[in-house]
Amino acid sequence: MAMFSSVFVLGAVIKPIPLEVKANEEKVQLGKKLFFDPVLSKDGTVSCATCHDLQNGGDDGLPVSFGIKGQKGTMNAPTVYNAVFNFRQFWDGRARDLKEQVFGPIENPVEMGHTLEGMTEKLKQDKMYRSAFDAIYADGITKENVADAIAEFEKTLITPNAPFDRYLRGEKDAIGWQEKEGYRLFESKGCVICHHGVNIGGNLYNKFGIYKEVESANLGRYNITKREEDKYVFKVPSLRNIALTAPYMHDGRIKNLKEAVEFMTEHQLGRYMKPEELEAIVAFLKSLTGEIPQVAK
């Protein structure tokens, strides 16, 4: 469980998204093609973009995702936007970085249902991919190079210039009084204890259901560590573009943003908020919606 003793100063713990990231453009373009290509799945029906729609928040808008043969998953697809700023990937943090994350869906029998060896052999049969990989990588098409290219593309999927970011950079009229009040409440009520940094989350683990017990079929970090104290512990999600990524929670149980805020204040903070306080916090959260990067269009 995350505990902090420092005093939070308004604006000190949330940082604006950088306006750009450095990336290898050739790898980015190759990774983009792979991201949208269902060739990565065993039956050629599911791509990365199937569950991460870049025109609609970077997720799929479903409580849980569906993979090959219509198989139903068990987890809510997190947004791929700004994932580069997360300290780990997946809800249970089992992947160390974007490269390692790529392998998970490809090998998951419910998602893409492929093997890494089968996937690379399939790509090698494509003249365009052979040429593209040979131009960038000395060893051509390998599972490591596939992951590297996709990760390089995903690294560029940042959404800068949200109204709140502009506010933090000194543009005081970028948000209104209600958003400012929502931010004040977000800090004073304790939301910022877990949701801070550039990604306003994504940089620590915490237990789901601290003050009120929450039923969950998924045991979170416990599935990885097998430690009793890790039951129902998940990576704290980013709040970037949160207004675009309903439904919420790791299992998609909450349908709208206001309900999500109310649920979290009760279960994670042990508080009840007045309707006007909830509305203000929701207004602040909506101000975290950034610009879709050109590379995603």
Short note summarizing the structure:
The chain is mainly alpha-helical.
Task: Characterize the structure shown.
The chain has about 300 residues and is an all-alpha fold. It has 2 domains: about 25-155, Cytochrome c-like domain (Cytochrome Bc1 Complex, Chain D, domain 2); about 165-295, Cytochrome Bc1 Complex, Chain D, domain 2 (Orthogonal Bundle). It has 11 helices and 2 strands, in the order ααααααααβαβαα. A two-stranded antiparallel ribbon has the order 1-2. The longest helix is centred in the middle third of the chain and has 13 residues, at about 145-155. The protein is globular. The model is unreliable at about 1-10 (pLDDT under 50).
Task: Please supply descriptive tags for the structure shown above.
297 residues, mainly alpha, Cytochrome Bc1 Complex, Chain D, domain 2, two-stranded antiparallel ribbon, disordered N terminus
Oligomer: single chain
Residue-averaged pLDDT:
94
Q: Write out the CATH superfamily name of the largest domain.
A: Cytochrome c-like domain
- The total strand number stands at 2
By DSSP (H or I, 4+ residues per run), the number of helices equals 11
Helix content, binned percent: 25-40%
Radius of gyration: 20 Å
Poorly predicted runs of 5 or more residues: 1-11
Shape: globular
Q: Order of strands across the widest beta sheet?
A: 1-2
| Biggest sheet record | 2 strands, antiparallel
Q: Could you please say which CATH topology of the largest domain applies here?
A: Cytochrome Bc1 Complex, Chain D, domain 2
- Measured between the Cα atoms of the first and last residue, the distance is 39 Å
CATH architecture descriptor text of the largest domain: Orthogonal Bundle
Q: CATH class of the largest domain, anyone?
A: Mainly Alpha
Kindly estimate the percentage of residues that lie in beta strands according to DSSP.
under 5%
The sequence of SSEs as H and E is HHHHHHHHEHEHH
